[in-house]
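--- STAGE predict ---
source: upstream dedup step, 1 unique chain passed
mode: sequence only
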Amino acid sequence: MGFGQHQSFYLRPQWLYKGMREIYDNPRFFYEDDHFEKLGVGKNMAKSVRYWMTATKILDEVKKTKIEHYLTDKGSIVLKKDPHLQKNFTKGLLHYLLVTDINVATTWYWFFNVYNEEVFDKASLSKELENWVEEKFKRKVSINSQRRDIDCLIATYLPKNFKDATPEDVIRSPFEELGLLAQTIKTNYTKMTISNFSLNLIYTVLLIYMEKHDKNELSINELVYSPELLGRVFQFSQSEIVEIVENLVKEGFPVVFTRTNRLDIVRIQNKYTSIDFINKSFAEEVLI
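--- STAGE serialize ---
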């Protein structure tokens, strides 16, 4: 399980690019004495950069004679095709990779895959997380670490208000633009459906899920309610998911949608690997 490794810093726009650029040239970059200076951040922020690279599956750690870091296949593609995270496809993909790993980003996994409330405040959210952690894990987790996770998660997804803001406050997280979280009143927040998504993103995450869990078909019910799938990580309703699947079929994606009285089944044909399709998506003329 992973709590508090972000050092209380949410993801900043250029952090992944700076880290990818350095790791591409030097697998031991994060062990260099001046690595934080090269990143242009403080020592704790440098630890946060490394965490966010790992949590979004851009960075992989390899233990040889010494510990080295390398870009993953997905990280290499992002560095080449969209290093500054300008495309919604990239942001949606990295969000998916972040919130589907219970071991590295435990609070993020819980919030998007376990927690069912749509409207909440920080106090209720923290209490629900505490209860889940106590039930789920044998090892004790600091309450303060959990609460810092809650603060960081909200800062990661909630659009910043520029009114009366300090310079630090106006630095946006790339994930704000996904539209997954909104503030209703001063102390209340609400989950929202992802905005500005593409069918390429949907098909990509389905491929990733199928490969990870060794499946080639899912029911609509699973797509709505199961962890790591569309209703959870992107907060789609059942009707929205049915419409999305129908559009995948209509637009020629290798998907078969079988509708019956009792069970609607979505089958993914083995035409692409997830890496192949990510490459294909970035090669499209128009990619949002």
